Amino acid sequence: MSECTHNCSTCGKNCSSRTTPQDMHIAPHELSNIKKVIGIVSGKGGVGKSLVTSLMAVEAKRRDFKTAILDADITGPSIPKAFGLKEKASTDGDALYPVKTKTGIEVMSINLLLDDETQPVVWRGPVIAGVVKQFWNEVIWNDVDYMFVDMPPGTGDVPLTVYQSIRLDGIIVVTSPQELVSMIVAKAVNMAKKMNIPILGIVENMSYLKCPCCNEKIEIYGESHVDEIAAQHETVVLGKIPFDRELSKLSDNGCIELFEGDWLSTAADKLFE
Ligand code: ADP
User: Fold this and answer.
1) How many structural domains compose the chain?
2) Considering the chain, what is the average pLDDT of its residues?
3) Is residue 243 lining ligand 1, measured as CB closer than 6 Å?
4) Which of 45, 135, 211, 230 has the smallest number of Cβ neighbours within 10 A?
5) 151 CB under 6 A from ligand 1?
6) For ligand 1, atom 17, which residue shows the shortest CA distance?
């Protein structure tokens, strides 16, 4: 047998230095007890990933589950604003403690730590990924039935590190019915598949607009192809959310917990046991 070069692409399959792929998941804080972790992902920013994260968490909380949100979107953190969180996260020097929303959802986000939340986060990828890991293993989350992770957008090195470090039980892909969607969804889906993370389904956001006068469904971005895209990837459409000014108002005013709408209730029935 030839000598091992430590380059597995050139040496034999039976080389003794080959090991099974390393599990790079890191353990949560020893005082955390987190049952299910669901990542909310999108292939690009601005499609409503944070909104879907918020709505899914509210759905879980309304069903009386102990619910948490880990805001891993470090460069575009919008969860604290959607829930109207003003209080900062506390620390005892060793661990960090999440902040509770009005209905009791536990949240950790970079904006709960920064003195001035209008300052942009201009850190490089490894630093950002390091902060997300700290949100996982240095925060005491106590008892959580469902944790929703608002994932960093895209398919670059930061989401990759998050996939590798946090034990995700599944992901929900958020998309909007625009051009290039099928390619962008494919990237997000393929990345999750490479990491062996189950894809729970796709949510189409800004799917349509309801005419305030006649209630007609207007497809603002053109015809939706999300059902075909889901079938192509052997997954399901978990819900279609309209473009709704009320939703953006609630989110802008920190009152997302008051949303009315059953767009994600089928998804919630399916996902929450
Ligand atoms: P992402 O997390 O993908 O970057 P966000 O969830 O932050 O996207 O949404 C981007 C903006 O669009 C926010 O201001 C949000 O309130 C608004 N928005 C998202 N989805 C809807 C919707 N269905 N109806 C109205 N406004 C929406």
Assistant:
1) 1
2) 88
3) yes
4) 211
5) no
6) 248
Q: Residue 57's closest CA among 115, 26, 98, 118?
A: 98
Look at residue 4 and tell me if it is in a domain: no
- 8 in a domain, yes or no? no
Could you tell me the pTM of the whole model? 0.90
Q: State how far the Cα of 43 lies from the Cα of 267, in Å rounded to an integer.
A: 20
Residue 76: is its pLDDT beyond 90? Answer: no
CA atoms within 13 A on the CB side of 90: 4
CA-based angle 121:164:149, to the nearest 5? 55
Question: Is there an atom of ligand 1 within 6 Å of 238 CB?
Answer: no
**Residue ranges making up the domain that contains 54:** 30-268
Residue 246, CA distances (Å) to 7, 22, 150, 260, 261 in order: 55, 46, 22, 9, 10
Q: How confident is the model at residue 57 (pLDDT cuts 50, 70, 90)?
A: very high
The residue contributing the CA closest to ligand 1 atom 26 is 248
CATH number at residue 125: 3.40.50.300
Give the distance (Å) from ligand 1 centre to CA of residue 125.
24
Short-list 120, 61, 85, CA closest to 272: 61
Q: How confident is the model at residue 222 (pLDDT cuts 50, 70, 90)?
A: confident
Mean pLDDT of 193-218: 89
State if residue 48 touches ligand 1 by the CB under 6 angstroms criterion.
yes
Residue 46 lies in a domain: yes
Please answer whether residues 256 and 224 qualify as being in contact, where contact means their C-beta atoms are separated by less than 8 angstroms.
no
In this predicted structure, what is the pLDDT of residue 8? Answer: 56
Question: Does residue 45 line the site of ligand 1, with CB under 6 A?
Answer: yes
What pLDDT score was predicted for residue 210?
82
Residue 14 lies in a domain: no
